[in-house]
Design a protein that fits this description.
The complex is a heterodimer of chains A (about 140) and B (about 90). By secondary structure, chain A is mainly alpha-helical. Chain A has six helices and three strands, in the order H-H-E-E-E-H-H-H-H. Chain A has one domain. In chain B, strands 1-2-4-3 form a four-stranded antiparallel beta sheet. The longest helix of chain B is centred in the middle third of the chain and has 23 residues. The chains are: A mainly alpha (about 140), B alpha+beta (about 90).
């Protein structure tokens, strides 16, 4: 996991979830918010801003710097943005998927710790093991 | 013989990659409709290859991510597409 993510990035993520209501708005409005969030995070790192489109598959097109998401998802948007960061040379783990999963989940955990724990309990974060409390109670 | 990309290996933790031949993806916005169509075909081809290779253990709904790399130095555009997957896939927050 990443423990050294910039405070500016964490504040941006928190702002879009808590103040702008990313999880409470319509899908159309959610995509608008995700585009704004990605733009602001790109500024933090000094990167070009990747395009975000609605798509059947979650994806990142390296040559076009384009992100596709089938629905509004904070962790997925961060995951795809990490692939954009990788293109710009920011990569900690050799395996680009491991790197993107670790970064996106870390940002969520550090920016919104209570929401992170709640989502983890409900199995709403891919690739994480079963939450310890669920495991102890024998819940999948 | 198809030379594998040197950008990413063939597989890793929860993902595998495929070589797909396709038409050029345009970067200009005036071609957005064409691009969406070509991109959609490209991603579907990769998804189909994944399903063929991994059924019955994994299916299309288990795909979580696709990362598309354009291969260089070919007359016909070739793409290396990473397909990530997990069995425990539900709604992600």
């Amino acid at each position: 996991m990443f423990t050294d993510i910039s405070n500016r990035t964490l504040k941006i993520v928190k702002k879009y979830v808590k103040k702008k209501g990313l999880w409470r708005v319509t899908e159309e409005e959610g995509f608008v918010l995700l585009r704004e969030m990605i733009k602001e995070i790109s500024v933090v790192y000094g990167f070009s801003v990747p395009r975000l489109d609605l798509s059947n598959h979650e994806h990142y097109i390296n040559s076009l710097e384009q992100i596709g998401l089938p629905k509004v998802s904070l962790v997925s948007a961060l995951h795809e943005f990490r692939h954009h960061m990788q293109k710009k040379g920011r990569k900690r783990y050799d395996d680009i998927e491991v790197d993107a999963r670790a970064w996106s989940i870390s940002v969520f955990k550090l920016a919104l710790p209570y929401d992170f724990d709640s989502a983890w309990r409900r199995g709403m974060i891919w690739y994480l093991p079963i939450h310890p409390e669920n495991r102890d109670r024998g819940v999948d | 013989m198809v030379k594998r990309s040197n950008q990413i290996p063939d597989e890793g933790v929860g993902w595998t990659s495929y070589q797909i031949v396709g038409r050029p993806l345009q970067s200009v916005r005036r071609m957005v409709d064409v691009q969406e169509n070509e991109l959609s075909i490209l991603l579907e081809r990769a998804a189909n290859k994944f399903v063929l290779e991994h059924k019955p253990l994994y299916g299309r709904n288990d795909i979580t991510d696709m990362v598309v790399f354009r291969e260089n130095g070919r007359r016909v555009p070739q793409y290396n597409i990473l397909v990530a997957f997990t069995k425990a896939k539900g709604e992600q927050v």
